[in-house]
Amino acid sequence: MSLPQSKTELRKTLRKTRREHVAAQSDAIRALLFHRPPAPLLAKIGHDAVIGLYSAAASEAPAGGYAQFFQEAGHTIALPAFTAANAPMTFREHTDPFGSGDLEMGPFDIAQPGADAREILPDVLFVPLVGFTASGERLGQGGGHYDRWLTEHPGRMAIGLAWDAQLCDTLPTEPHDIVLDAVVTPTRMYGIS
Ligand SMILES: Nc1nc2c(c(=O)[nH]1)N(C=O)[C@@H](CNc1ccc(C(=O)N[C@@H](CCC(=O)O)C(=O)O)cc1)CN2
Ligand SMILES: Nc1ncnc2c1ncn2[C@@H]1O[C@H](COP(=O)(O)OP(=O)(O)OP(=O)(O)O)[C@@H](O)[C@H]1O
């Protein structure tokens, strides 16, 4: 009988699965993925919505294509930014999704807009994840950053971007965990019909 894994053990297993999934992909195929959101999802996003994205780490689902797409479509876009690793997550405007010239390295080794970038509140958040379920439960990196931000800013739409290999039958959940409105993978969209 296998016991349920703790969040920490699951993160380890799922990060390995994610790494191996991406390593097994060809660069040519990967370059074709996550260029624009699926049409049924786009239909739910207002024309003037501020869009929160993220600077993907090596094996996370890439979000740069969406940043370019939303900027070309006239949206203001934002990325997470931290003044220190233990500071709350805020969002600052990302002005150069085609060149990344407005980004600098932040805590967690993740590129973020510089301190002079305007702080803004996204209406729609695309979020990275370590694991997800078909009903939108999410396991993140363990900082609680998105759960906390979404609790403090209710009414925002939160959409996960993930590889299919990150789908889990179940995940351990805690009361503070926020359920995603949708999850997009290269082959499917969960949560929006
Ligand atoms: N690309 C990206 N940006 C993001 C997040 C994320 O998960 N991915 N975040 C999500 O909340 C926030 C930053 N929070 C983070 C909290 C913890 C770790 C962390 O523990 N990283 C591990 C390495 C993980 C790995 O092996 O893949 C580490 O530093 O040891 C990273 C980011 C906002 N920006
Ligand atoms: N709304 C909240 N208010 C206060 N603390 C919170 C809240 N959400 C999460 N936390 C705290 O953050 C820590 C990490 O939470 P959790 O394991 O759910 O992170 P995660 O969602 O996987 O990470 P991340 O969002 O950074 O990718 C926990 O100690 C939890 O108590």
TrEMBL record:
Keywords: ATP-binding, Ligase, Magnesium, Metal-binding, Nucleotide-binding. This is 5-formyltetrahydrofolate cyclo-ligase. GO terms for molecular function: 5-formyltetrahydrofolate cyclo-ligase activity. The keyword Magnesium applies. Coiled coil: none annotated. Belongs to the 5-formyltetrahydrofolate cyclo-ligase family. Its cofactor is Mg(2+). Its EC number is 6.3.3.2. It catalyses: (6S)-5-formyl-5,6,7,8-tetrahydrofolate + ATP = (6R)-5,10-methenyltetrahydrofolate + ADP + phosphate.
